Amino acid sequence: MVAILATGNGRLTSGSALTLRTAAWYGDRLVTVAVPASWQVTTLAPPSASALTDAQISERCESPAGQPPIRELARGRARPLIIVDDLNRPTPAARVLPIILKHLDDAGIPARDVSIVMAPGTHGAPRPDALLKKVGAQAASSCQLFVHDCDRDLVRLGRTSFGTPVLVNKHVAESDFVIGVGGLYPNWTAGFGGGSKLALGILGFESIAWLHFGHRSMGWGTPNDQSNFRHDLDEIARRIGLQTTVSLLLNGDREVVDVVSGDPWTAYSPALELVRATYQAPVPTDGVDVVISNAYPNDLSVTFVRMKGMRPITAALARTSKVVVAACSEGVGFHGLFPMSASTAHRRRLTALKARILLRKPHQLLPKVLRRVGRQLRRPAPVEGKPIWLFRPEPAGAVALPSQIGGINVTSSWEQVVAAVSREQGNRNPLQVAVYPCAALQWLS
Predict the structure, then answer these.
(1) Can you give 43-81 as a three-state secondary structure string?
(2) Element (H or E) spanning 306, and its range?
(3) Which residue in 239, 251, 268, 383 has the fewest CB atoms around it within 10 Å?
């Protein structure tokens, strides 16, 4: 049996098994499925990289970019606060938090005086065990832990030069030394996260909406140093006192393989260069019959699989069969700005807020209206494409899902997926199959 593992780059294999990692935060396990002998499989994976030891992570935190180590920056401070992203980001913050706490202790600040805020933005309330999974047992037992709520306990800090209202978590506003822990992952709005974008997750709903709807999206994996979205966030990050960041770079198994720390602006560019160089992948070519997009390590829910794990699928031709692999351990999930399902009251709130933002930005409102009118006048014929199949391996203990949601077919039967692909491709042989083993980390050149 030949196993196609999530390592290497551009390897071509025929048959007979496909092994991928799945279920981020819920086991991070490997799953193996049988592959028809007629499938010519090319695995488009990033280069393999070994996980760092705790000592190696600690060593990298001794040489931050553009500033001294945290222990020196923190001397004389009394209310340090660490922002960590939520489980919808794959960052294993627990690997670096003990090192940061040691730096703060060296500066005379005991762990009991350190606050940690999980920053879900508009993602909704995380599960009760999410903080422990994210920060680890040491930080959970010794620090003050908070989960940000974008609708409560906010402090207003005026507006940015772009007109964005700055409503920030009260614990962040009361801190005198803010540290951000996260990673640089591709996304649609900012191109890539990280840097000052770590501040977004602790803002109020209105602030986050203004940032998303008040600026043009950059596109998945697009360099974003000069975008207004990024500049607006830079202003906000400075206003809330984000003084240093620790960015963890991961491999396809969600292991830490590098660390870039330091000044949020000085450290961002080298971290972005590393990520872009590592996770570049080609778009599916005209000759590809089937695209398999493994949403790991961002496969927590259907909402975020759709947003983070399907870029290879959306880039494929209409005739291409489309398969996404995702555990969706938390079911449908929720994003307040782009919900797959939401109450009528929430949708009304969102519509009213969008209208208010665009009315204050007429230079963006007019092009949106003209594009919509143009589409209506042209009335293009709908593009017929193959359906998306979401293969959900071994969902024992996961939240139940319907067999179809948001136009996506959901199944835990790999045999059903293979049969559907065969039908869609007219039972042709052989089929050219492109596999993206960690699609949520990969950007397409």
Answers:
(1) ECCCCCCCCCCHHHHHHHCCCCECCCCHHHHCCCCCCEE
(2) helix 302-308
(3) 383
Whether residue 32 contacts residue 393, with contact meaning beta carbons closer than 8 Å, is answered with no
| Parts of the chain belonging to CATH 3.90.226.30 | 3-44+282-338+383-444
CATH 3.40.50.11440 fits 54-277, yes or no: yes
| Residue ranges of the chain assigned to CATH 3.40.50.11440 | 54-277
Distances (CA, A) of 303 to 96, 105, 342, 425: 28, 39, 12, 28
What is the amino acid identity at position 160?
Answer: T
The dihedral of CA 90, 93, 94, 95: what is its sign? positive
CA distances from 272 to 47, 51, 280, 336 (A): 17, 19, 12, 27
Average pLDDT of the chain, as a whole number: 91
Distance CA 335, CA 247 (A): 24
Nearest 5°: the CA angle 388, 414, 280 is: 55
Q: What is the CA radius of gyration of the chain?
A: 22
Provide, for the chain, the percentages of residues in helix, strand and coil under a 3-state DSSP scheme, each rounded to the nearest 5. 30, 25, 45
Strand partners, 29: 22
Q: Residue 414: enclosing H or E segment and its boundaries?
A: helix 414-424
Q: Which residue has tokens 């009304």?
A: 348
What are the φ/ψ torsions at residue 272 (nearest 5 degrees)?
-65, -40
AA letter at 222 = T
- Report the phi/psi class of residue 81: left, alpha or beta, with left for phi > 0 and alpha for psi in -120 to 50: beta
Q: Both tokens of residue 15?
A: 């048959």
Strand spans (E) along 161-208: 165-169, 177-182, 186-187, 191-192
Q: 302 vs 27, 129, 152, 410, 426, CA distance in Å?
A: 18, 20, 26, 10, 29
Total residues belonging to the chain: 445
Place of tokens 């929430």: 346
Task: Name residue 155's amino acid.
Answer: V
What is 3-44+282-338+383-444's CATH topology? 2-enoyl-CoA Hydratase; Chain A, domain 1 (3.90.226)
| pTM, to two decimals | 0.92
User: Is the torsion defined by CA of 417, 418, 419, 425 positive or negative?
Assistant: positive
Structure tokens at 80: 């340090």
pLDDT in tens, 147-187: 999 999 999 999 999 999 999 999 999 999 999 999 999 99
